[in-house]
Amino acid sequence: MNFRRFLATSVLALGLSQGAIAKPQLIDQVVGTVNEGVILQSEVDAIINRVKTQAKASGQELPSDEALRVQAIERLIDQTLLLQMGERMGMEISDGQLDQTLANMARDQGGTIADMRASIEASGESFQQFREDIRKEITTQQVLRANVDRRIYISLQEIENLLKIMDQQGGNAEEYDIGHILIDIPSGASAEDIASSQERATKVIEMLNDGQEFKRIAIASSSGSKALEGGQLGWMSTNEMPSLFAEAVKGKKKGEIIGPLRSGAGFHIIKVQDVRGRQVVETVEVRSRHILLKPSIILSEEKARSMLAGFVKDLRAGEADFAELAKEYSEDPGSALKGGEYDWTDPTTYVPTFRDTLMALEKDEISEPFRSNYGWHIVQLLDKRVADKTDLAKKNRAQQLLYNRKFNEESFAFQQEIREQAHIDIFAEE
Fold first, then answer.
1. Listing from the earlier edge strand, what are the strands of the sheet with 370-372?
2. Residue 389: its pLDDT value, please?
3. CA-CA distance, 209 to 251, in Å (whole number)?
4. For residues 269 and 217, what is the distance between their CA atoms, to the nearest angstrom?
5. R_g of the chain, CA atoms, integer Å
6. What is the pLDDT of residue 257?
7. Is there a contact between 73 and 31 (Cβ–Cβ < 8 Å)?
8. How many angstroms separate the CA atoms of 414 and 290, rounded?
9. How far apart are CA 113 and CA 136, in angstroms?
10. Can you say whether the dihedral through the CA atoms of 83, 86, 90, 92 is positive or negative?
11. First to last CA, the chain
12. Contact (Cβ atoms closer than 8 angstroms) between residue 178 and residue 248
């Protein structure tokens, strides 16, 4: 074992038994370093075991353990880089925010946190570890959104152009369930590197055309963010796909393999797994108001939460006025001067934590304090309605589709950039 790995490896304390020194027992092992952080074998094993459990439940065939190890390490590299950035940003997910997220997850599954805990422990996993994994996931999502959002600009002209396209499509627009495999091109690649990546992509297409399972090939070969999920991107309209995909997928039939499509990231392979007409759902709109406090060096996380808890207590007792509190304290420049009020809005345009908290309220009910990537909030549901096809609803929908497309494109580019700036060292498997 080399010296660096020895230093970073946890070993049981030496014990004495009948005058003999007990043999050291290896508890965990470092498999790589990412800047100042480490990736542990136990973390790799946890991901691999989770993928195997899910595959067994669905009857899916998996590639070799070595292929799974590579993908698990790739996922942990991305996660570690985002967590390190979150630490530098001072981003923390409190126990209260974590509990609220878990409660929302449990409610979506028709149960409680206690039900969730029982299910997880019955599968042999630690609920405490599950909690910490969710905490990491929330952190990485918020770091990604905070850094990618500033790279996204949507002009009024773009919205108007998409509205015209949507009007032309009418009710005949299609959605595609797509699978994705990325054969990446290394940074600073030579002509030989690019040719090698293209050859690998061609071989992948040949295997898929020969009938090999897409998910298995994706797990084994893809460098995409959804590799461990079998490359499943889910249902999307062409208006929210990356432009490269939209142009290639439009009009294709179920089962078709598309590619390789060249981008700056590498060669993309798409499978159209299913096609359906646009799912038309009645649009619910809400009118609400909120108060936002942003933690800072001066205002701690706990102080922001406790201030809002005090507001909630006074509001429910009729001892305070929501609009006056919002004007005085809220740090949302778009709503504070209006007493914290938002006009009729499609709730899907809000960040998930805000949306889920708002939609769980009854009319006039005020929420408990909760955390989003913007800060601490309380929100009151003023009214709810089933919207008609108003111009505002159409514009909100178009803006969200454009945002989804740009977020997918920019988040991949952002993660590639922070990888290129990082020092990553993965040790050879012994």
1. 341-345, 283-293, 375-387, 370-372
2. 58
3. 19
4. 11
5. 25
6. 94
7. yes
8. 31
9. 18
10. negative
11. 9
12. no
Q: How many CB atoms lie within 10 A of CB 418?
A: 16
Residue 323 in contact with residue 378, Cβ under 8 Å? no
Q: Comparing C-alpha atoms, which of 199, 196, 219, 216 is closest to residue 208? A: 216
Task: Name the amino acid, one letter, at 147.
Answer: N
CA dihedral (58, 63, 65, 67) in degrees, to 10, reads -120
d(CA 144, CA 225): 13
* Residue 316: per-residue pLDDT: 95
Amino acid in position 380:
Q
Instruction: Tell me the one-letter amino acid at 429.
Output: E
Residue 237 in contact with residue 175, Cβ under 8 Å? Answer: yes
Structure tokens that stand for 127 in this block = 């609920």
Positions in the chain whose pLDDT score sits under 50: 1-21
> Which residues lie across from 267 on neighbouring strands?
183, 262
Question: What would the pLDDT profile of 22-36 be if each residue is shown by its tens digit?
Answer: 555 556 799 999 999
Written in H, E and C, the secondary structure of the chain is CCHHHHHCCCECCCCEECCEECCCCECCCEEEEECCEEEEHHHHHHHHHHHHHHHHHHCCCCCCHHHHHHHHHHHHHHHHHHHHHHHHHCCCCCHHHHHHHHHHHHHHCCCCHHHHHHHHHHCCCCHHHHHHHHHHHHHHHHHHHHHHHCCCCCCHHHHHHHHHHHHHHHHHCEEEEEEEEEEECCCCCCHHHHHHHHHHHHHHHHHHHCCCCHHHHHHHHCCCCCHHHCCEEEEEECCCCCHHHHHHHCCCCCCCEEEEEECCCEEEEEEEEEEEECCCCCEEEEEEEEEEECCCCCCCHHHHHHHHHHHHHHHHCCCCCHHHHHHHHCCCCCCHHHCCEEEEECHHHCCHHHHHHHHCCCCCCECCCEEECCEEEEEEEEEEEEECCCHHHHHHHHHHHHHHHHHHHHHHHHHHHHHHCCCEEECCCC
CA proximity to 358, closest of 295, 291, 288: 288
- From the list 241, 97, 98, the residue with the least C-alpha distance to 179 is 241
Q: Which two tokens stand for residue 90?
A: 């001072």
In the numeric block, which tokens belong to residue 142?
């918020």
Alpha-carbon distances, residue 290 vs 1, 62, 86, 112, 149 (angstroms): 57, 47, 26, 27, 22
Contact 292, 375 (CB under 8 A): yes
Rounded to a whole number, what is the largest CA-CA distance in the chain?
85
pTM over 0.70: no
Residue 70 corresponds to which tokens in the numbers above?
A: 């590579």
pLDDT digits (tens, 9 = 90+) for 207-222: 999 989 999 999 998 9
pLDDT of the residue at 2: 39
